[in-house]
Amino acid sequence: MNAADTASTHPRRHPDTAFRKIGDEGGLVVLPGRAEVKVLNPVGIAIFSQLDGSKDIETLAAAVAEEFDVELASAREDVMKFLEDLKQDGMLA
Amino acid sequence: MSGAAEQVSPYNRLLEKAFADAIPLTAQFELTFRCNHLCTFCYNSPDGRREMTTPQIFETLRKIADFGVLYLTLTGGEALCHKDFFKIAAEGRRLGMALRIYTNGYLLADPAMVRRVADLKPFEVEISVHGARPETHDALTRIKGSFAKTIQGIKNLREEGIKVQLKCPITKLNQNELFEIRDLADSLKCHMTFDAVITPKDDGSLDPLALRPDDDFLTKYWGEWYMELHHGKLPPRQNHCAAPGTEANCGTGRSGFTIDPYGDILPCVAFRRAVANILEIDSLNDIWESSPVLNEVRGISVEARTRLNEHEDGKYFTFCMGVAEKQVGDPLGIYPQAALNAKSIRRSYELLQIGERQG
Q: Is the pTM of this model over 0.90?
């Protein structure tokens, strides 16, 4: 497995990002290089905080399914969609 | 369910939540009181104690990051005068915090310095500009050639694509060139803010107030010039660090905190009551909720807003409890600049026929 494969199966947030969860309301992600701040909802910040490169998509989906009490298939779909959004926003390594 | 990124109003909602729950998002870290300028109105008052060493600063950064702070603001004195500034800033970034740098910009006239700043990928750099002309700026910094170097520094940062925020404390020396300063900022593609309150020194000396703009100027500034200077923006009716609709006057000891070069933790940069020393605690979690100083300051902040609301011009006050404590000896005491500003802002809103809840 090469580095690109690992990045797609074990996603990792961009090292330049900074983030903070705020209560149960969601969280903020700062993209310093672009001087931008993104707002994530509670599910989004829960996923984002887990993106340290050690967890595969299945593990992330299982965590979301358990924490937010949703079906695994639904959680998997949402995680995939969210990761795609993050990738397009330059928030993944 | 969706994890998609949202924008605009959810941001304010999160800030209000953080403010209400006293979740600090920002730490302002004064790395050193050393400075390469001699500004006569500077509020810093070094007391001769030994400043923290670089290893102690690293320990402090770790405690700030462990506390979950999002924005790390490095300031001084002049932060770039610290011999290990780049090591310290890089460590802050490595620990996952977004970096703001407050500087006078003098050393950034050197393109090599700016490339090192760019490598840090700062969220933004804030620079003070004290005039539109060298003679004005240099008279206030008391460093000949400082205007040229600062402007070159700003240009260098912009060329590297770094967001630069300019700020100008209004003094009697520069009060007649604010439009030129604003035009200068526009030409540099930087956002500009003016600060109409010159504050006492941290040791209580009122000497800097000798430079405060005169009352006639301030009345016109708020009533006639503010909106034009700020591209149509209305004058502020609450402190910039207070969340909308909050009961508190400001974010002191709530939305952030300050650490001085000796390691003392302060509720904010202006309200300098020592909470504890960062080197003597294991974790900021140990003091944030239980500190008597922080709890008193948060209480005073709510009391200040309550009292201001009873004042004739109360809905129009921007009020700093730190300035009040230093200037009139009471954090709830209304100091002359705040009263004049509130009265002038109220008149401005009345002329614009904007009600208390509008705008």
A: yes
